[in-house]
Amino acid sequence: MEKGEPGRVLVLHGPNLNMLGLREPEIYGSTTLADIDASLHELGRELGLEVDTFQSNHEGALVDRIQAARERYGAILINAGAYTHTSVAILDALLSVSLPVVEVHLSNLYTREAFRHHSYIARVAVGQICGFGADSYLLGLRAAAGILNNGT
Ligand code: DHK
Q1: Residue partners of 95: CB distance under 8 A and separation at least 6
Q2: Where would you tag: which of 12, 85, 121, 130 has the fewest CB atoms within 10 A of its CB?
Q3: Which of 27, 116, 120, 128 to mutate to test the pocket of ligand 1 (most atoms within 8 A of CB)?
């Protein structure tokens, strides 16, 4: 299986994450998605990684981006939002591209409703980071850098 380009990370944001800053700030914080993307690009520069970000409210659009990531990226960082708990299609797309996956969430899934405790993404992810608000993404990007540099 051919690997993608090692220095590039694709960051995917699922449904309703475009509403960050407005959406249930007591759960998701007040940081906007634009702020998160800017922080990811800044950290990517520090880590020597090229970071591309994409948000969609549509499952198929996320599947399309995952499929197109094959041979273009070294790793995928994903917060699939509610699709985390429902989407076999996103799981299958991630399995099909054979790239290392880091799963992130702003909130701590395990202190919330039971339906959020199951993640389809976790089956394919190297690891999951949740509960650190917007910092979950930055911790996730550091994890992706570690995987790309050392395989860990
Ligand atoms: C974001 C969502 O939109 C929810 O559907 C997930 C996740 C949790 C988060 O914490 O980032 O259940």
Answers
A1: 124
A2: 85
A3: 116
Catalytic, 13? Answer no
CA nearest 10: which of 123, 110, 106, 93? 93
Q: pLDDT for 65-97, tens place per residue? A: 999 999 999 999 999 999 999 999 999 999 999
* CATH number of the domain bearing residue 61: 3.40.50.9100
Decide if 82 is inside a domain. yes
Residue 2 covered by a domain: no
- Burial of residue 147 (CB within 10 Å: 0-12, 13-18, 19+) is buried
Please indicate, yes or no, if residue 144 is contained in any of the structural domains. Answer: yes
Tell me whether residue 12 is in a domain.
yes
Please enumerate in sequence order all residues whose Cβ is within 8 A of that of 10, keeping only pairs 6 or more positions apart, or say none. Answer: 52, 54, 65, 69, 72, 73, 75, 76, 77
Active site residue 105: yes
Residue partners of 115: CB distance under 8 A and separation at least 6: 85
**Which residue's C-alpha comes closest to atom 1 of ligand 1?**
81
Q: How many domains does the chain fold into?
A: 1
Domain holding 104, by residue range, is 8-150
- Indicate the SS3 state at residue 100: coil
